[in-house]
Amino acid sequence: MLPQLYPQAFYAEDQPSAHTILTIHVLHRGFNAGALAGSALPLLNASFARLFSRPPHVSPLALRVATSAGTGSVIGTALLTVGLTARMWEREEVEWQDRSWRLLSNGGQNRTDDWSMMGAGFGALGGAVARMQSWQGFGRLWLMRAGLGGAAMGSALGVLGHVATQQGKEVFGGGGKESSKT
User: Fold this and answer.
1) 36 CA to centre of own chain
2) In terms of pTM, does the model score above 0.90?
3) CA-CA-CA-CA dihedral for 90, 94, 107, 22, to nearest 10
4) Dist. CA 93–CA 97, nearest whole Å
């Protein structure tokens, strides 16, 4: 996603829009991390409820996972915003440029971004459509929550899908790294 929006300079110290590139990357990773952590909580809760013979939750597990993933994505994004500010406070411009340049030149990171963004788009659309299909007069807030939850789940599943396909290439042949043979 980022290389298409921000071209990479020949040298790291010439990289334009370094603050924007690094900020977009960190916010995107916060969204992913929060979605993964948030979606795990209802699954753990359901496992413990079954283990300790507590009564099951009233709402369906898929709805709780999507809602929790959406909430987690917002929290994860907020936490990594604070983390970026703390980490890069009073850093020189060349440090921002170097980190941004290395992000743009990392092919694996760029593929992860692409998979995550495609998953988020499909997830948001699916969450909104599913919510509209079961429309019960809840209003726009519920529709936006369903879209956010769907985007968070799609983003997390996109990252997991990318990791799974890359691991498969390395395990079953085809090389996970670009071949230097021509």
Assistant:
1) 8
2) no
3) 30
4) 6
